[in-house]
Amino acid sequence: MKTNQSTALYSAVITSDPRKSRIKRLRKYRSLYILAIPAIVYLIVNNYFPMAGLILAFKNYSYSKGIFGSKWCGLKNFTYLFGSKWAGIMFRNTILYNLVFIFLGTLIAVVVAILLSEVRSARAQKAYQVIILIPYLMSTVLIGYLVFAFFSSDNGFINNSILKPLGFDPVKWYMKPNAWPGILIFVQMWRSFGFQSIVFFATILGFDKTLYESAVMDGATTWQQITKITLPLLKPTIIILIIMSIGRMFSTDFGLFYQVPQNTGMLYEATTTIDTFVYRTLMEDHDVGRALAAGFLQSVLGFFVIMIANTIVRKVEPDSALF
Amino acid sequence: MAGNNKVFRRVANVIMVILCAMAVIPFILLISSSITSEQVISQSGYSFIPRQIDFSAYKYIWLARKGIVRAYGMTILVTSVGTVCSVFLTTTLGYLLSRKDLVGRSFLSFFVFFTMLFSGGMVPSYIVWSQIFKVTNTVWGLILPNLMLSAFNVILMRTYFTMNVPDEILEAAEMDSCGQAGILFRIALPLCKPMLATVGLFSALTYWNDWINGLYYLTRAKELQTIQNVLNSMSNNVQFLKDNASVSIGLEFSQHIPTLGVRMAIAVIAVIPILVIYPFFQQFFVKGIVIGGVKG
User: Fold this and answer.
1) Are residues B9 and A119, on separate chains, in Cβ contact within 8 Å?
2) What is the DSSP letter of B148?
3) Whose CB has fewer CB within 10 Å in chain A, the N or C terminal residue?
4) Per the structure, how many domains does chain B have?
5) What number of other Cβ atoms are within 10 A of residue B3's Cβ?
6) Number of domains forming the structure of chain A
7) Could you give the CA distance from residue B16 to residue B229 in angstroms, rounded to a whole number?
């Protein structure tokens, strides 16, 4: 009985009129729809509710009055946000850090991927891959501890074991905002280079081996193979990944900027990005309005940038576009 | 010329070894600091070679193990529940979207995909979870917000199903009167084990390492803290010991607890499971990065 039903359903898809087949297809996948309900509900709650919640940026939100009870206030939250000196600082930091991360990160990753592909011993190659990924597995809290072990003023490795023996005065790193762009960039490169390199390395592994073989036959040196074969073939991937990361221009890793400098007030000038600003205003200053306004700008600008990035990718290389 | 290439390869090897060393060295500092005596640390700082091996930090943790064991229990609980849910949600939705003759397929795909382009951000998300769903200071605050389902994984899963489960097999199964759910669990899933492992591992890593949910949603319920939350609050609590702040409190405090070493020892305890498990699963990580990275 059941056998007949399902075979009938299947042929119905092909033969009968569209409306009828629609209902039958709905019936056919009934159990799958039901199974997927939790996932769909989760996306609605976790992703779509907050999107709708962005309108709160135009309200004078108060926890007691709730989402619907709070009064509209026009652009007050935004003028209030830009009345703070942190608005400019956080946008500057977010954008500049991201630019450095994108370009320096890509450069390092490409170089490492090429070096890795030049390693001939399969075992060594595997070992390198496994080891350079280790930093990527660590939580930012833990990375904060590692950084602290190096930079702590009283007990840090750098002050005690490098600067002191060389006769320099110890530096109070957690009081010197100037030092932190460098430290944060280094930390970000340290934790992400393995991951990014492997993306490029995998791409290189996919290249046509015969190109290299014939190049070697023609007497090309390794350097020539890299500049004349590997890099040109890698170019589309590089461009796509760069454009895609530009699409994430307004987001930063909260942990990197909050945890690694240990949320030190002295360093805010150098470490405040939109994400840490939002956290601080929301959870420490309980200043929901400012946090909402900053978050709203982050979401909306982020959306525009990713749309623009995608449009560019579609022009450069249609196959790699997100949509 | 051939000599030239050899030189290049040697240089490549040397640089790779240096990079590998750089990736690992901070952990050596961490481990060695955790087994250095408190006096040595306060005199000459954290260093790579413990001048005087001393396990008092671990002894202290052992004495105060209740808190650590509980935090570990929370981490394991949150990670396992979160990962199971995450794999379930990703699979069911990914499989649904992979059915080519599905009614509403393009709408649903867009519904999932759009969450990758646009997000409400932290503040509305916090308001939704804390004000509507009241997850603050409950274990759900660690499990539910943000980490459970990523649209990106759903799309990877969908693609994997479409590529690796041949239509003929599904048709045959339909003929054999397997229900659609039966087909998913008995036929499609076994064919997609590598993808399940990848999604599961990345999700487990995300939950294991997460401390941000704890920061936002555990404001009072300290007994629910995971090991990462403990690390986070320790780094804030000893913040006043750190550096330039009132030294007197620091000295007084450090007479009772080997603070400098204990912090590092707890960090070591938090990191060891990952370092131990990682080699066994690294191929899935590499695979996952490759699938995810190139199309991401």
Assistant:
1) yes
2) S
3) N
4) 1
5) 7
6) 2
7) 34
